[in-house]
Amino acid sequence: MRRPTWPPRQALRLAVVLVALLGLVALGGWVVGGAVAALGVLFGGVVGLGAGLSDVGWSWRLALAATSAVAAVLGSLAADQPVAAGVVVGLAGLAQAPFTRRGAKLAMMLPVVPALTASLDLPGRPVALAAWLAVGVVAIALLAASLRISSEAHPAPRGEAVRHAMATAVVAGVGLGVARGLEIGHGYWLVIAVATVLAVSRDATGREAAERVGGTLSGAVVAILLVAVLPLWASLVVAAVLLVLSIAWVVAQQVRLSAAAASAAVVLVGSGGLVGSGAELAAERLALTLVGAALAVGTVALLWRLDRGDREAADEGARS
Predict the structure, then answer these.
(1) What is the domain range of residue 53?
(2) Is 158 in the same domain as 20?
């Protein structure tokens, strides 16, 4: 079946409205609290997107906001300690379990929060950033509610939720700790790859890994070509358009196209319009995405073999 190459009109309209309204909230945060407020609101909007668009109730959304804020502070405090940073990311991965039981991708980005705050030299105090991040999580939910946008949450069985949380904790935690130890500045991209590729359902992980890696590769290549010819202001405009398309394709469940748009947007914003820095950023993202995806798929394969062995042993015991 031929895949659509453009987001459905409804999904595109949703993405435009959400990005525009969240941008206004971030602008208001900038006026009140400066760059750290705007950054926190935007980051919180990304983290809370799954909860905001799912019919899970306000108790879960507020719990995600509070948990994300705590994870952000702990990640900042562990920034100069690779082992501690890995432990904090691992704890955030474990904290996914109750959220995942309520909705499969409710807290998908939670481990990314401390990975980012541990890896980046973010402006402002950690507590201020965490508070604005919580505001962003709540804001995206309020915006979705005001637009009457919601979808089914798809709860996960307890066993799958716990197994997914443990796998995420180990792979993302160790990966971030090693990246920090090797002084890889953008090691959080490995955690992003793990978080997005390591699906709760083991059967879906291989497919999502292939689509996301393929999308990231194509998006980075396009971005490298664009930064060679576009001035900075044009790069930022294109990046905003790509962000809208990425969200629209997420709503339309087009993983590969969403990854391509998101990857290109990140490279365009980070490149500053210089070919060299853009290429360097793209190459680093590609390498870390490949490593994270490979680790995620390998972990699922190992868990599948262990689980299959347990089932065969249980069946053999029942027959005897």
Answers:
(1) 12-164
(2) yes
Query: Could you read off the pLDDT of 185-237 as tens digits, one per residue?
Result: 678 888 887 887 777 766 565 666 666 667 766 776 777 677 667 776 777 67
State pTM to two decimals.
Answer: 0.80
φ/ψ (deg, to 5) at 267: -65, -40
**Residue (of 199, 149, 215, 153) closest to 11 by Cα position:** 149
Total domain count for the chain? 2
Following CA atoms 123, 125, 126, 127 in sequence, which dihedral angle do they give, to the nearest 10 degrees?
Answer: -140
Q: What is the DSSP letter of 134?
A: H
Partners of 54 in the beta sheet?
A: 151
Do 157 and 57 fall into the same domain?
yes
Quick one: which of 260, 261, 266 has its CA closest to 236?
A: 266
Q: Verify that 83 and 205 share a domain, yes or no.
A: no
Domain boundary among 138, 164, 190: 164
- pLDDT tens column, 276-304: 445 556 667 677 777 877 787 777 677 66
